[in-house]
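Q: Please design a sequence for this.
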């Protein structure tokens, strides 16, 4: 269709990497206009943990719409909101002995981050937030200030302030605990680091290159925060909702964040939905201080409730994610050993994994070759050097094997260096 070239902004990105017109999707599959089937290892950048058009969610959503359920209600109390809150409290928070207030922010993850940072600043009276190298928290200005990537930061057009950047786990080498550095600068009145309001961190940095914080590092980070009376914010927007195996990505570390942000797969069906969890004593908002026309999403309340009831009423789904994650790890390690020539390595945990190809040129060739073979898979990292495995968590064993097989074939082709894989011309055929 010429219309894409005629009036759609140049800001588009995924459409450049996967230049097809898609018109149908189910589970872990998508189909283009010509009927070609693709395995989806992108999953809406983590929004489709439960697959495309999950039949359970679709049924309850259609029933809700058919019965004229509330679609938009600002922050009015609705039956859909109440039922979601009750389910979330009963099946997610209480079983984990978690006591939090729930704030419905605007429908995007970046808005949840904005709310989290505002809460921390308002409660503590401090202005600055400690953030980490390679972190990604969104592209609205406050969240962008907490983001490390220069590509996104340079687009802001203004100075980005209000943060202190610290080295993430492993940034200075495997044997250096960077929380010790954080503790040092916070303890030294001459370090130039004023007492911050909070620390915001991802347990697994997705856009930053699938960098995984160790359990010990996360525990040490919490210790430092408590020592210096700094709030700990966990940005679980991409790593949460089961992606690492547990509902929250920090569960394995046994830490208790003061504030948690969730979005992406929270709504279950791919519908926009975000929230901010905060310890009860932090809920000091005045009515309407963080406002927005689309706070919460009644359609997403319905599908989010169904997602929790279907997949998180017991440990079966979590166990399945961990099993598939172990299979993925073994396969990726084998691929790296066979074709990486000692340069590649694997990264990640659970179903949040990737192959570090060292440079973006190689990773790009691999993902383009995979796309030609019917697999949608993206890159991440500062230089797009990571081939990022991010399939729906409900993927069948057969499809998971097939997708990794395709990547292995693509890696073999690229590493063989027999033929340079050309950049595929990006265009849309006119009707």
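A: Design:
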């Amino acid at each position: 269709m010429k219309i894409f070239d005629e009036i759609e902004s140049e800001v588009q990105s995924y459409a450049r990497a996967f230049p097809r017109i898609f018109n149908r999707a189910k589970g872990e599959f998508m189909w283009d206009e010509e009927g070609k089937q693709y395995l989806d290892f992108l999953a809406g950048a983590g929004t489709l943990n439960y697959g495309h058009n999950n039949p359970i969610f679709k049924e309850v959503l259609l029933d809700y719409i058919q019965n004229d359920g509330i679609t938009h209600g600002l922050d009015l109390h609705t039956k859909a909101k109440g039922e979601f809150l009750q389910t979330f409290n009963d099946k997610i928070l209480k079983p984990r002995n978690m006591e939090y207030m729930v704030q419905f922010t605007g429908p995007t993850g970046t808005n949840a981050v904005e709310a989290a940072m505002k809460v921390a600043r308002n409660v503590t009276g401090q202005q600055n937030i400690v953030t980490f190298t390679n972190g990604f928290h969104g592209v609205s200005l406050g969240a962008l200030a907490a983001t490390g990537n220069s590509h996104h930061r340079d687009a802001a057009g203004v100075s980005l302030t209000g943060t202190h950047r610290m080295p993430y786990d492993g940034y200075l080498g495997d044997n250096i605990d960077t929380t010790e550095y954080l503790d040092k600068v916070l303890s030294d009145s001459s370090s130039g680091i004023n007492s911050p309001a909070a620390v915001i961190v991802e347990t697994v940095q997705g856009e930053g290159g699938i960098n995984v914080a160790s359990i010990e590092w996360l525990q040490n980070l919490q210790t430092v925060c408590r020592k210096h009376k700094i709030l700990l914010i966990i940005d679980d927007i991409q790593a949460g909702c089961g992606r690492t195996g547990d509902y929250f990505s920090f569960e394995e570390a046994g830490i208790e964040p003061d504030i948690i942000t969730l979005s992406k797969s929270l709504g279950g069906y791919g519908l926009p939905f975000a929230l901010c969890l905060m310890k009860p004593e932090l809920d000091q908002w005045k009515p309407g201080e963080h406002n927005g026309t689309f706070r919460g999403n009644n359609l997403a309340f319905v599908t989010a409730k169904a997602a929790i009831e279907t997949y998180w009423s017991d440990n079966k789904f979590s166990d399945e994610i961990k099993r598939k994650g172990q299979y993925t790890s073994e396969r990726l390690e084998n691929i790296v050993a066979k074709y990486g020539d000692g340069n590649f390595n694997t990264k990640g945990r659970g179903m949040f994994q990737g192959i570090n190809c060292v440079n973006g040129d190689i990773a790009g060739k691999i993902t383009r070759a995979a796309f030609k073979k019917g697999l949608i898979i993206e890159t991440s990292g500062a230089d797009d050097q990571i081939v990022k495995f991010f399939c729906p968590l409900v993927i069948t064993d057969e499809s998971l094997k097939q997708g990794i097989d395709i990547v292995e074939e693509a890696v073999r082709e690229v590493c063989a260096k027999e033929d340079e894989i050309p950049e595929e011309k990006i265009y849309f055929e006119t009707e």
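Q: Thanks. Anything notable?
A: Confidence is low (pLDDT under 50) at residues 423-431. The longest strand covers residues 22-26.
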